[in-house]
Amino acid sequence: MAAPEGALPKTFSVSADKPLALPDELSYIISAFQPSEPHTSRSKAILVLSAFCQGVRSSFSGGQKPVSDNAPTESLGKVFLPLLSAKLADTTKEGYVVTASFLSSLFQVDWQSAAYIFQQDGVIDYITDAIDIFPSQDACLETSRLLSQAAGHKTCRSLITEDLVQWLETSCRSSNPDLRASSAIAVVKLSRGQSSDSTEATGQAEAHLTTSNDGDLTNLFTKLIISEEKDLSSISDAVEGLAYLSSNSSVKEHISKDRNFLTKLFSLVSKRKESPPSQLSSLIFGIVTIAHNLSTYRPRLSQEDAQIDKLRRMAKAGNKKGAAEESDPLDDDVHVKTRARTLAATGVLDVLALASRLNSQGIRATTGRTYLNIAEDTENRGRMLQSGASKSLMNLVKPSADSKAETLDPLDLFAVQALAKLSITASPVQVYGPNIGTVFDAIRPLAQMLLHDSATLLQRFESLMALTNISSCSPECAMRVGSFKDLLNKVELLLLEDHTLVRRASMELICNLIAGSDEVFERYGGSEDLKAGRSKLQVVVAMADVEDLQTRLAASGALAILSDSPSACRSLFDLQVERHRLFSILGQLIAPDTDAEDNSSLADPGLIHRGVVCFRNLFLNPQESLPPDAVLKEAEEADTTQTLIRLLKGEFGSVDAAVAKPAMEALNYLIEVKKKVPKNDN
Q1: Which residue of 17, 88, 341, 542 has the smallest Cβ count within 10 Å?
Q2: 247 and 340 housed in the same domain
Q3: What sequence ranges are listed for the domain UNC-45/Cro1/She4 central (predicted)?
Q4: Residues 232 and 353 reside in one and the same domain
């Protein structure tokens, strides 16, 4: 019996108010999922069923702790079983179709209660008998869809008999395309699920070897997707099946080489935007999953992890199947990069943009991972920016940002990392547009990724690079980055990292923040308090003496900026008097040691300019006049006067006015100081 018009909305309100009692009207839901019902009725029924199941589960979580963790599931099962038993007692085809279609829908809404019912005595026998008693196309289609849903769950998978498996394999060759698609999905789920179950039992992963059956199923799904005549339900089934198969490297290659198919696949969403939301979401999730599988790189292992992995493979040397999986050339970086470029060129970015606006956590997480996979190749990033990927990525992380939580959801880290890659590639205006507010909004997720406990060193490095770019956009951007809670403390810790690039990125960000943020400028010695930033100044001086050229440029640039402050100059001179290193370090910026192993910094114009400016400011900018005898003593020990003379003579290359003027001012100061100091004091 079909649900009368208006019954479902009434049921919704009753079930929300009385979640533990099954209203009489709710019994109409059992019949509301039949294929003969219109899409609108089935969509309403899904909402009602979902609300009822959530209400029952909420009633347990809100009161006393249930006797067992399964209590909510058992309660739901006991609510639905009497109604289904009445349908099971009905030996007509209509009664069976009602039962099978409802149970399939329940798997999608609350799989635990559906699995509970599926495992009851007599249910699997009833389904087995039905394939002989009701051979009609509609009954067979509901059977295959129910088995497809059940095959996705381990507790149900073990109940599916060999007879049912053989029937599914036979149905894969049916003349009915809908039946072929749903049966093929069930076969794929059973195959992959049994492999997963075996892995859990043995503790060893097994390779998914390509079989002729995989090839046949792939061809079946692709033909169904290409066909314009099939309804959305059938196409969604085919996409779901292909999503399962696309975890196999050979299937990935087969799909990626068919550009016409990929273009057709990605255009399905735009052509069917008016479809019911539940079906459209299912279609989008399947397409995004396929794109994710095709574009996923092998994990990047650290040196230590790579060594452990090598030992593990040596221990499994006798397992040829495992060895084949480890060395599969179709999943190397070259093949994945090619597939990702194909995806970007055939329209996947439009699908990802739409997926980023959906509320499903599964869709959003997979979308973020897929964006990150595609962004790994710098050649794809221009196309991503053209498609509005930065806006889509901001949509993906917006719920976390809006929640005002101090940390990101770990699932959002992939989307933020993709956003960071785009922010590194182009200027903030190109990435976020002319609206400065959008740039401000991006600071929070990028800073949260830097601070996140689950973030990898690579994610932190890319966050540093992105924030460096953003902080150069305007003083207000630098101020917002510098004032983000705990961010500077984290950056300063990363200055001590072993990895050269991480130290460099940390120093470059600090340099930009000193230049753009008054608060950070004062933190590093620019305030009136001489003791406030002395320890931090000492760290910056030390970073100006490392081997890496870019790190030295950033650190010496920070010193040049800070030396505009009289108090910072006095603090720097005090460091020189105490440790006798600053003048030597600045001198090496101008005249590096020619015997050094790293020749990349020899006579670098940027270092020379920074060193000269630092000397000039140190001598002429202090709050109080420096003691002449102390200045002369320190300068002579560091050979500062001779270094400046050699510079002006052109021994380190041609000298332009921007360098010559401050160098001459510094040299004149030293000459005047020498005149003032009595000779017997030297």
Answers
A1: 17
A2: yes
A3: 25-190
A4: yes
Render the burial of 317-330: b for 16+ CB within 10 Å, e for the rest.
Answer: eeeeebeebbeeeb
Domain count, the chain: 3
Q: Is residue 201 part of a domain?
A: no
Calculate ∠ Cα 505-510-512, nearest 5°. Answer: 95
Query: How many CA atoms does the CB half-sphere of 85 hold within 13 Å?
Result: 9
pTM of the model: 0.83
Closest CA to 411 of 424, 392, 397, 395: 397
436-451 and 389-402 helices, crossing angle to 10°:
60
Same domain, 454 and 538: no
3-state helix, strand, coil in the chain (%, to 5): 75, 0, 25
CATH code (residue 224): 1.25.10
In a domain, 133, yes or no: no
- Whole-Å CA distances, 247 to 20, 188, 234, 288, 292: 41, 11, 21, 13, 9
Least confident of 181-185, 553-557, 559-563, 665-669: 181-185
Measured between alpha carbons, how far apart are the two ends of the chain, in Å? 110
| Cα distance between residue 556 and residue 515, in whole Å | 12
Q: Tens digits of per-residue pLDDT, 549-586?
A: 999 999 999 999 999 988 888 889 989 999 899 999 99
* Contact present, 672 and 619 (Cβ < 8 Å): no
Same domain, 624 and 475: no
Instruction: Provide the domain limits for residue 256.
Output: 215-300+326-381
Residues 359 and 392 in one domain: no
DSSP code, position 601: G
Integer Cα distance of 77 and 107 in angstroms: 12
The reply to whether 643 falls in a domain is yes
**CA angle, residues 148, 8, 150, in degrees to nearest 5:** 10
Kindly state whether residues 677 and 581 are assigned to the same domain. Answer: yes
360 in the same domain as 341: yes
Cα–Cα distance measured from residue 371 to residue 289, given in angstroms and rounded to the nearest whole number: 12
509 and 579 assigned to the same domain: no
Tokens found for residue 89: 């007692």
Q: Assign residue 580 the CATH number of its domain.
A: 1.25.10.10
Q: Are the beta carbons of 232 and 272 closer than 8 angstroms?
A: yes
SS3 assignment, position 591: coil
